[in-house]
Specification:
Layout (H helix, E strand, L loop, with lengths): L1 E6 L16 H10 L4 E4 L9 H9 L3 E10 L2 E6 L11 H7 L5 E4 L13 H4 L6 E5 L9 H11 L3 E4 L11 E7 L3 H10 L2 E5 L4 H7 L1 H4 L3 H9 L1
Parallel strand pairs: 1-2, 2-3, 5-6, 6-7
Antiparallel strand pairs: 1-8, 3-4, 4-5, 8-9
Amino acid sequence: MRKLKAELHSHTLGDPHDPIRYTPERLIDLAASKGYDVLAITCHDRMLWSEALANYADRQGILLIPGVEATVQGRHVLLYNQEFDPQRFDTFDGLRQNKSPRALAMAAHPYFPAPHALLGQLRRHIDLFDAIEYCHFYTGWINFNRQAVRVAKEHGLPLVGTSDVHHLWQLGKTWSLIEAEKNVDSVLDAIRRGAVEVVTRPLTWSDVAGFGLGRLVPNPVAVFRSFFG
């Protein structure tokens, strides 16, 4: 086995919630040019994976893992290798009852100050999660991943680094190295075992200026909740 460079949280054209301009193929091509081995396209409440798209990725040297960013009681949860029906996964109880043994559930940016972040719901439903996301969207002075790190250590869960790609420039800001064979089951099993390493660096001042500070700290009240929720 070798360490596979992986991006497990990304969005493309076809996402029902966000106006993404680039196609899945464009993202796959860029990932291949940056040396990625594994990619998951995780549109909101829509599984975009298909055999045709997986074959396209394979021709570029990339394993495409089926994924979706599900809305569960208004909060975002990343699901992989799971047959997805929004109505069956719209509550935490539904997720608990319907999650496949071969699927993996990851807490998406759980303490980011936004209404769709898990916040206190992560601890309340910690049994549902196999991993916790370490998201690229932070600086040296504002980092909402810190609470996620504490909760991961507290519960013995692995951290998975992602770029939560909504813009192509974000790909490569944070990623994971996963020690696994290059197939879906091996990659997800490796994450469960903690055979994953986060590679990350804070956003630069130019990154923040280009994206907008208001997107980093959109809601001061939610900032408070992110630390104490």
